[in-house]
Amino acid sequence: MESTSNLCLYKINRTTRVYWGLSPTIKKEIYRKVLEKIIIYGHEIWFKDQVEQNAKLSSLQRVGLLNITKCYRTVATEALQISGIPPITITLRYLQQLYRLKYLQQSIQINNQTFSFEDIEKRNKFEPLWDKTKFLRRHMQKNEDGCCIYTDGSKLRGRVGCALVCILDKVIKFSDQKRLSDGASVYMAELKAIEAAIMSANSHQYSSVKIISDSRSVLQALCNPNNCTAPISSIKALLNRL
């Protein structure tokens, strides 16, 4: 690994030395896509998080960071983190924890909080093409007619929640709000709000319902036929059953 990374650095230095206008941002991208991948290759087997091993890994990373920051060789390794790249040992510890959780299905502990395999978001392996749901996105009008369900998700003071309100002929028919786990994201709150809106529309049996959301990321995820994550697939399944 050391000889391969040194050879890679030598070729990068030869290439970047010719083009004086090559910015540190481009060098940083080359480091992340090439050199870092070489260093961490097969980390599931060989990384033991030992002092001697970590020192060798830091020395390999140091050469790449010097090339990015153009600092003097006498600069301390810790000071090279101004490049915005974390120490390679921290990256490897993160990948090790992720490997244990995702592939070995073992529980891990981070900051006195335990995470299990059941806590992570899983991807549906297959979704038939005939089950694909088509979504139409458009800008909301000032005065929407018909039955409209407005959804929203937010995070305030470390607390996450979602809410919805149904308006028909300028009259509030029903509303609902839910509290999510503090570790949930606003994206997940927006998804839960849309899911609750679909279930509410189904239970009230309206002939036509407009579900309105201001989350572009959620709408793009719903429109993306290649997004097969569990929350998105759950919403599509609810719509197919309407």
Automatic annotation (TrEMBL):
<feature type="domain" description="RNase H type-1">
    <location>
        <begin position="143"/>
        <end position="242"/>
    </location>
</feature>
<dbReference type="GO" id="GO:0004523">
    <property type="term" value="F:RNA-DNA hybrid ribonuclease activity"/>
</dbReference>
<dbReference type="InterPro" id="IPR012337">
    <property type="entry name" value="RNaseH-like_sf"/>
</dbReference>
<dbReference type="InterPro" id="IPR036397">
    <property type="entry name" value="RNaseH_sf"/>
</dbReference>
<dbReference type="InterPro" id="IPR002156">
    <property type="entry name" value="RNaseH_domain"/>
</dbReference>
<dbReference type="GO" id="GO:0003676">
    <property type="term" value="F:nucleic acid binding"/>
</dbReference>
<protein>
    <submittedName>
        <fullName>Retrovirus-related Pol polyprotein from type-1 retrotransposable element R1 4</fullName>
    </submittedName>
</protein>
<dbReference type="Pfam" id="PF13456">
    <property type="entry name" value="RVT_3"/>
</dbReference>
